[in-house]
C-alpha cells in the first residue's frame, strides 16, 4: 500500500469516526422544519443551518433527519462551489466566500441602510454605544450594520451576529410588529434561554410584546449577555410595515444614570422616526 493510499484510508476512518460521534448538545439552533427536503430545498436548508452555527456532516444529518450520504453529497457540492468552507482541524463546515459575495450585494443595495446612512453617521459619535441596524430573517434577528468605537468592543454586537427573536430589545421590536399568526407560531416553539435573565415563558413574552407595540420602544438588560443591555426602536416603510430595528447595545452600568438613559431613548426614537419618514412612512397611514 502506498503512502497516499494509507493517507486516504486514515482520512476515511477519521471521517467515519466523526460521523459516528455524538453531536454537541445545542450546537445547532435551527428553525428549519426538515419536512420533505429535495434538491434545491435541501441545499437551502443546509446553508441556513450552517449559517447559524458551523457543524460537521453528522450534525447536519441529525438536525435535518436525512441520510448521511445525502447530506455529505450536498455539502461536498456546496463546498466545491465555494458556498461552504471546511475547517480541516474540526471537520466543521461554515459559510464560504462565494455566499458572502452574494450577501454583500444584498447589503450594498439595501434601501433601509441607504436611508439610514446620514443618521447612523451622527449616532456613531455616541460614547459607549454599539450601534446596530437589525432585520428579521426567519426566527432570528440579524445584525446587518454595526458600529462601535475600537476601545469599547462589546462582544457579540458586531455585524452578522444573530439571536432568537425573543431575546434582546431588537428581537422584541421585530417580533412585536409581526402578524399575530407569526407570533403564535414562534411562541409555540421551545424558547432558548441565553442567560438566567432571558424571558422564555410565552405569556410573559406576549406581555412584553404588547408594551413594545404600545411604546414603539424596547429595553432589555442581561438577557443576551449578563453585562450588557440594549434598547431598540422600529424602522417602518411606506406601507407601515416594520422592516428593521435601530438598536443601541451598551454595558448595563450605563443605565445607572436616568438622564443618560432618557437621552438615549430620545435619540434612538428620533433617529428611527426620521429614517422611517425617509422611507415614505407617515403616521396613521
From TrEMBL:
Alphabetical list of Gene3D superfamilies matching this protein: 3.30.450.40, Winged helix-like DNA-binding domain superfamily/Winged helix DNA-binding domain (1.10.10.10)
Which controlled-vocabulary keywords does the entry list?
A: DNA-binding, Transcription, Transcription regulation
Task: Please state every residue range assigned to the domain named IclR-ED.
Answer: 98-281
InterPro entries given for it? GAF-like_dom_sf (IPR029016), HTH_MetabolicPath_Reg (IPR050707), Tscrpt_reg_IclR_C (IPR014757), Tscrpt_reg_IclR_N (IPR005471), WH-like_DNA-bd_sf (IPR036388), WH_DNA-bd_sf (IPR036390)
Residue ranges of coiled coil: none
Indicate yes or no for the key word Oxidoreductase: no
Q: Where is this region: Disordered?
A: 1-32
Query: Which Pfam families does this UniProt record tie to the protein?
Result: HTH_IclR, IclR_C
Protein name as it appears in the record: HTH-type transcriptional repressor AllR
